[in-house]
Amino acid sequence: MVDHGKAKSDISLAGTFASSAFAACFAEICTIPLDTAKVRLQLQKKAVEGDGVTLPKYRGMLGTVGTIAREEGLAALWKGIIPGLHRQCLFGGLRIGLYEPVKNLYVGKDHVGEVPLSKKILAGLTTGALGIAIANPTDLVKVRLQAEGKLPPGVPRRYSGALNAYSTIARQEGVAALWTGIGPNIGRNAIINAAELASYDQVKQTILKIPGFTDNILTHLLSGLGAGFFAVCIGSPVDVVKSRMMGDSAYKSTLDCFVKTLKNDGPLAFYKGFIPNFGRLGSWNVIMFLTLEQAKKFVRDLESSSTS
């Protein structure tokens, strides 16, 4: 039996944070066009004009990517990449980097054997909530910039870029506005983080028990796909509420947004953009975990060679 619990904790906390931040940023750059498509699909409401129903502008993930690229240029697909990288550096570094230390804290230093799934979930919930409580402004700015492209031609853009968006929101709406949607965001990110990290941990542990499987790229790939699937199934409803609240000020609270969405668009609206969401989170997790495992290996070799 491979004790990969030990292998993960044998690099410094700074090394773990740096590896996590790097892996999260790399995955973000690769997959943000899918995230932009996902946000546009989630913000799209049923439009009714007179007696007739207008056809939705965005249809499907690839259709949405194509529409944005055609109408706004390829660069629009990477809108929000700067706050996206701010977010991943801060949030990714914290939630992934602290997962192992927090998990070890929950089981206690004298624990021997496999870590129970409940403790993995608890560690994921803790680091997800903590990370996003700090990184919420970066998330808000990313969603606002991604939603900008929906404005009709000729309507001036509210923000010239990420830094301008932070200062404009703070100046016009107050500093507290940068933490808009913090409730659903903590809920969403704690849940998704637990789903991603605990399921990756659990799937990897299960795969390593199968004869012929070792701690290699194939194992990381399968575990990453499993983590992405669990994360989307569990996190999609809170993700839709979060995007709607951040992209539109018409909702009074999380509950108000949930009820209005359910009443106006039906229960399936909470799984709106499920395919782009899985395309995004599935590929994000695969890229992130593959990069993370390699980055940690690199840091481990670096640290062991500097101490020897």
From TrEMBL:
Keywords: Membrane, Mitochondrion, Mitochondrion inner membrane, Repeat, Stress response, Transmembrane, Transmembrane helix, Transport. One of its GO terms (cellular component) is mitochondrial inner membrane. InterPro entries: MCP, MCP_dom_sf, MCP_transmembrane, Mito_Metabolite_Transporter. It is found in: Mitochondrion inner membrane. The lineage of its organism: Eukaryota, Viridiplantae, Streptophyta, Embryophyta, Tracheophyta. The keyword Zinc does not apply. Gene3D superfamilies: Mitochondrial carrier domain (1.50.40.10). Its main location: mitochondrion. It is a multi-pass membrane protein. This is Mitochondrial uncoupling protein 1. GO terms for molecular function: amino acid transmembrane transporter activity. It comes from the Eukaryota.
